[in-house]
Structure formats: structure tokens, C-alpha cells
UniProtKB/TrEMBL annotation:
Record keywords: Metal-binding, Zinc
Name of the protein this chain belongs to: Protein yippee-like
Domain Yippee: residue ranges: 13-110
Domain of life: Eukaryota
Recorded GO MF terms: metal ion binding
Renumbered residue ranges of the record's region Disordered: 120-139
InterPro entries listed in its UniProt record: Yippee, Yippee/Mis18/Cereblon, Yippee_fam
Lineage: Eukaryota, Metazoa, Ecdysozoa, Nematoda, Chromadorea
Family, per entry: Belongs to the yippee family.
Length: 139
């Protein structure tokens, strides 16, 4: 097996795999925070990088029947969410081609490129200050 090629599209606030910290997406691609996953709150993104997708599966969800693919981190293979391939209900068509990532399985890095310091915050929606910083990585 060769080297895994990983992409990074940048951004002021970025989302990474909680297990291996591989870049997944940025806040500019965040469409909604009003979703539920199997581990709790989940986010809807228009695009993600560095993931592998499973084969399609038809699932009945809270909002109806959908054809989806499970989404796995390309680096560590952690299942981090799913992608909507097809929605049967007209009102759900906006989800097609979009990705749900489970909040509990993400690490959020804020101001990584603005300050040169990546502030990692897990599971918190409050503003980043020294009391909310769980780790600091000098870049």
C-alpha cells in the first residue's frame, strides 16, 4: 500500500478527524448545525476532503427515506458520518451530495492560519479563550 494523499483547503476555522486530526473541511462549507447523528449533534457540510465512501444503502431516517453512503476518515478509517446520495422527498433534495459529520467525532481548529497557532476545541460551542483551549499546536 502506498502513501495516503491528503488534501487541505485551508480556512480560519477547520474541522478535523477527532482520532487522527486529519483535515476534513472548513467553516465556509458548513451548511447547518441542526442535525442529529448516532452520537448526538451533527453538522451538514457541502463538501469534505480526505474521506472514503461506502457503497450506497437505503435508510429510513427521521426525515424520510434516503440513499446514503457512510463516510470514513481516509487516514484512520474512523466512521465519521454519512453522505446523502439521493432523497426521495422533494423537501429533502437539498441534502443530495451533502455530508453529515458527527460533532463528537470532530476536532475544531480556530484561527489556525491567522495567528500561526491552532487552537483545538472539542465539544464546545463557546468562544475560544484560554479556558476553552484543550491543546495548542505551534505551526
Amino acid at each position: 500500500m502506498g502513501r495516503v494523499y491528503l488534501e487541505h483547503a485551508g480556512g480560519m476555522i477547520t474541522y478535523h478527524c477527532e482520532k487522527c486530526h486529519t483535515y476534513l473541511t472548513s467553516e465556509s462549507r458548513l451548511q447547518s448545525t441542526a442535525f442529529q447523528g448516532s452520537t448526538g449533534p451533527a453538522f451538514l457540510f457541502t463538501d469534505v476532503k480526505n474521506v472514503d465512501l461506502s457503497k450506497t444503502d437505503t435508510r429510513t431516517m427521521i426525515t424520510g427515506e434516503h440513499i446514503v453512503r457512510d463516510v470514513f476518515c481516509k487516514n484512520c478509517s474512523l466512521k465519521i458520518g454519512w453522505m446523502y446520495e439521493f432523497a426521495y422527498a422533494e423537501s429533502q433534495k437539498y441534502k443530495e451530495g451533502r455530508f453529515i459529520l458527527e460533532r463528537k467525532l470532530l476536532t475544531v481548529n480556530e484561527d489556525a492560519f491567522q495567528t500561526g497557532v491552532a487552537r483545538s476545541r472539542c465539544g464546545s460551542n463557546s468562544s475560544a479563550d484560554s479556558s476553552n483551549v484543550s491543546s495548542i499546536t505551534i505551526t
